[in-house]
Records
---
Amino acid sequence: GPLDLRMNPTVGLSAADWLATVSAEELTRVIQSYGEDGDPILAARIAEAIVARVKEQPPLRRTQQLAEVVARVKRDSSANLFQQPARLTFQAIRSHLNSEFQQLDIVLDAAMEKLHFGGRFVIICFKRAEVEAVRRFVRLHEECPPGILETWPREKVLELYPLLKRDSGAVSEGPPYSSELDSEAEGYKEISGSMPASSSKASSVTSAKSSPATPQGQPMLHQDWCAVEVCPPLRATAEETRANTRSR
């Protein structure tokens, strides 16, 4: 089909138009960040091959054309009849064009605001980078344990627990915020979904109310909740992965 890959064809550049102008360096970054994240050299080879193809012939306009370019670079992948060699390259370009990871951050923020205190929701991720993005979100909104507040240097605590940072202009001498978790949950809400039979992963995150204490009269944080990962990511079983591979 047409080489577009946009979720909304009326917004932004199509994949074909973007590839016609992108540099090899930028394309390498996109492929490595959102696709071939474990092999930077392979990402660079794929990017160079695509840019060379665009320069030597008319711009790529069909998905099959792009798939053939990537397949020539990834010849070893052709041994797996169920694995499309260009899958991760298409995934990377699609993620970039649709700002998928930026959209994920927006969804996580909005979901936490909608949850009741003590509520939890489950996130289904299809890529390792998505799991890392969810965990990064949790780390940015995670409450600092009291023991660390009392023993670690103030600068280090603020660096490793960004939730405790104060508004600009409100910095004063003294210890960082201490925070107590409200033990009385005002509600519970869970968003669940079926786990796809693939190599997907799920990360469960719960929202809880925090009460920043300000013993020296420091201003309170505007955000009155924190997040915590309540279970590690779940991986599909070998049987589920085989079933998903056969269905492809």
---
Amino acid sequence: TSPGGNMNVISAPASVMIGQTGTVSVSWPSVPGDEWFIGAVSHAANGFLKGLTIIEGANTIEPKNPLLGYPFVSDYYTDVVDGSDSFDVTFTYSGSYSANAHGLEPGAVSEGTISEGGWTKHEFELSGHAFFQAFLPDFLVDTRESNDLDIYLVNPFNQIVAFSQDEGSFEVVEVAFPMDGTWSVYVYGYEVPGSSVGYEFLYWKVSAIPGGNLKVGGAPSDAVSGTEGTIDISWSDAVSGAGPEFYYVGAISHSDENGPYGLTIVDVDNWVLDES
């Protein structure tokens, strides 16, 4: 997209030689009130975009406001092949209510190689999905003891929707009810030993159309504000094995008369890891 906005580049070198560094000075106006902002400085050579420097600032009341508003996601975890359970939801409105099950979906893998200070981009076509998640665990990164990778989730408008910058490499980004289009997961090499490191991360795309081996056995048909409702769920054939395809993710969608307003994510992790 074209440059613009209220952040300005004050000075930057007109040219640099290979191996040299240059200083780029930027400015932006003060941020009033409870706000959180992100911008970017693009770096170009010979008319081609070479990279971005992300500028982040905060003047917030804890907790920070999300970058973009998406329906809530809460998590439910199990490691049972065939099972059933229940959980409670608290209603904040009065009216019609329904719960539907989506999935379970087996884990898939995307992989790459990255150097310190470098970026890699992984694209995903999402259309008619209720949930997308990318998970980069440290055990899928070479030399995991001394690396630090971060991941960012970017929507089709090139807006950062979620990011994970924990110390080390145990990162998760996710979005509920993503818009249709090409989404991107960017991996950043914050600290990488040696010249480069190989990595893999898991991802799941859960359809917005109910169906699969995750079921809703019982749920209220009406919501009363301030009360709780119990959702009974069951799942089957979440077989165990040695591979990411045995780590399953599904979702229970919560809907009012206007459609879905939230998800409860169901993780069934039956991936048997080789500890040797």
